[in-house]
Design a protein that fits this description.
74% of the residues lie in helices and 0% in strands. By secondary structure, it is mostly helical. The chain starts with a helix and ends in a 9-residue tail after the last helix. It has two domains: 2-73, no CATH class; 95-275, MetI-like fold (Orthogonal Bundle), CATH 1.10.3720.10.
């Protein structure tokens, strides 16, 4: 087990290296001059050239990449071109907000989606199954930005029950800011509930037809025990994979949801940095997103050993 984990961690290094090349190349080749944006339209060519030299933009892309990688290896992710704050500090401030949002959204999705999928599989092709399947399709079809706007118009503008944007007072107690999470969490959870319920339904239908489930029933086990001990545990394997993918993706920032609700998370930080041509912050945030996604997938792989005893890591 430890050899497998160590091997997977070592495999992260070339992946991170390739990701760093892609991120740096895409950002460096994107249109727009950060020096001219910082100085404004009235700056002279001499002032722009001096600013480019100060920012290191006068060097070739390979040289700039080598300098950037050297700084990253020293845990220096650069400083914002907008407010001169360390990029790592900006990411560290935004990440807890995104983590809180993702945790509550996925928890709600699992609490509702898994029972829906189980109930739909047990009542396959019955009216209840058709209703749940239809609701899942509707949940996948609803655009998140439209749902977020509708929630704001209904719960904030019309009834004034919830705040329309923001994350609350960072110095206040955690429960005091929960009201700021309700609408963003619902917006993210709707589509994820549909995803989890459909995966659980499909996996449960396959599992319920397996030989070991029929054997358990033949031994006289109660249906609840058969579903809980035999069917559900194996059906959770594909769901764990989807959970890991969704968790890693949302840790990168629920960009649309955070933008609609002006939620100060990682996704909104990326969007604002791109609009401001704040390249160091964009690079730091994207590298953090890649690392978070890779670590999440590693945890998903390790969890297979606990959900499925037939999974062995010794040969890997």
């Amino acid at each position: 087990m430890s050899r497998y984990v160590l091997g997977r961690i070592l495999l992260l290094l070339p992946t991170l290296f390739l990701a760093s090349i892609l991120i740096f190349a895409i950002i460096s080749l994107s249109p727009g001059d950060p020096a001219q944006i910082r100085l404004g339209t009235e700056a002279t060519p001499e002032e722009i050239a001096a600013e480019r030299e100060r920012l290191g933009l006068d060097k070739s892309i390979p040289v700039r990449y080598a300098i950037w990688v050297g700084d990253v290896l020293q845990f220096d992710l650069g400083r914002s071109l907008v407010n001169n704050r360390p990029a790592a500090q900006l990411v560290a401030e935004a990440f807890p907000n995104t983590l809180r949002l993702v945790f509550f959204a996925l928890a709600l999705s699992l609490i509702i989606g898994i029972p829906m999928g189980i109930f739909s599989a047990v009542r396959q092709n019955q009216p209840v199954d058709l209703a749940i399947t239809g609701l899942s399709s509707l949940g996948l079809a609803i655009p998140s930005f439209w749902l977020g706007i509708m929630l704001i118009l209904l719960l904030s503008v019309r009834y004034q029950w919830l705040p329309p944007s923001g994350a609350g007072d960072p110095d206040a107690f955690f429960t005091a800011n929960l009201k700021f999470l309700i609408m963003p969490v619902i917006t993210i959870a709707v589509s994820n509930i549909a995803v989890f319920s459909r995966f659980i339904r499909s996996a449960m239908i396959d599992t319920l037809g397996a030989d070991y489930v029929r054997t358990a029933r033949a031994k006289g086990l109660r249906e609840g025990a058969v579903l809980r001990r035999h069917a559900l545990r194996n059906a959770l394997l594909p769901t764990v994979t989807v959970l890991g993918i969704q968790f890693g993706r949302l840790l990168g920032g629920a960009v649309v949801t955070e933008s609609v609700f002006a939620y100060p998370g990682v996704g909104r930080l990326v969007i604002s940095s791109i609009l401001n041509r704040d390249y160091p912050v964009v690079q730091a945030t994207l590298m953090f997103v890649v690392l978070a996604f890779l670590l999440t997938n590693l945890l998903v792989d390790i969890s297979y050993a606990y959900l499925d005893p037939t999974v062995k890591f010794d040969g890997n």
